[in-house]
Amino acid sequence: MSAPKLKWGILGCASIAKRAVIPGVANSRLNEVAAIASRDEEKAKKTAEELNIPTAYGSYEALLEDPSIDVIYVPLPNHLHKEWSIRALEAGKHVLCEKPLALTEAEAAEMADAAERTGMHLAEAFMYRHHPRYDMIKKLIVEGAIGEVRAIHSAFTFNSAGNPGNVRFRKDWGGGSIYDIGCYPINAARLLLGQEPQAVTVQALFSPEHDHVDMMASGLVEFEGYVSLTFDCGMWAAFRNPLEIIGTEGIIEVPHAYTFPEGGGHFFLTAKGERHQMDVPHVNAYSEQADELAEAIIFRRPLRYPVADAVHNMRVIDACLQSAHERTRITLNAYPGEELKA
């Protein structure tokens, strides 16, 4: 007999929830979507009916009060992440919160403190890193398949500039391309290099047509050993999301680094003068993300990506935004116990 699945509650009817996360949770091994809430009860009921969710609530508070719910997924606009994640944690629920976890490192640290205080898990929803190809890529790097890593380049862009009602264009709601998609290359570089950056320099297009949020940004993120991430991100450019890792003896190329088009999960390894397509298992990264959180909850073990990682990522995002506004290089201080070389 299989064990009961964890019951998830969805806080809001965001597009990412309906399009990807809810189906991913529903198709996972250890979880099921049991309820959804919206401040518009009719919207909640309609979404529940469309996605076969048993229960719909007309307020976020009602969902948090449901004693049957184990995990809350928070896909709300960025400025609401801290409040509702902490409220969910304090209601005795584990939380998967959309990226970026918060608007600042300080907010993220406050959320991490709430998770520690309540004994609940708090995870950031970077689903891409739960796909097995990233374990494959890290293994190739560690084994020296491309020699020493010299540089990483990545990008994440799309064009939604013509949609004036997009929440990503609300400055006071945490809008902008660095928050929304620049966070991916930053997170990926930290993941693959296994270290924290020393400094960042970013130039951005702050658009008066879009509430002065950064609609495009290009950046340099410096790591130890003179290795850098160069990245660009934007909501006013053609769609793309590649990742390239350049080594002394080879290159790893990921054409679709943060999305998973049908049949597009593969990547390429160039080594010893030959380019090989590296095929990977066809899995749902959203389902894998849900199951890894569920395993941590069920078996009472640490998260694979602890909430401290989200706090560290927010520190880099803070610096990127500061650099873009001030048009200057921002040096990052070391964490306690961590020595960053000049």
UniProtKB/TrEMBL annotation:
Residues covered by the Gfo/Idh/MocA-like oxidoreductase N-terminal domain: 6-123
Keywords for this protein: Oxidoreductase
InterPro entries to which the protein is assigned, alphabetical: Gfo/Idh/MocA-like_OxRdtase_N, Gfo/Idh/MocA_domain, GFO_IDH_MocA-like_dom, NAD(P)-bd_dom_sf
Family: Belongs to the Gfo/Idh/MocA family.
UniProt entry tagged with the keyword Heme: no
Domain GFO/IDH/MocA-like oxidoreductase: 136-253
Superkingdom classification of source: Bacteria
Name of the protein this chain belongs to: Gfo/Idh/MocA family oxidoreductase
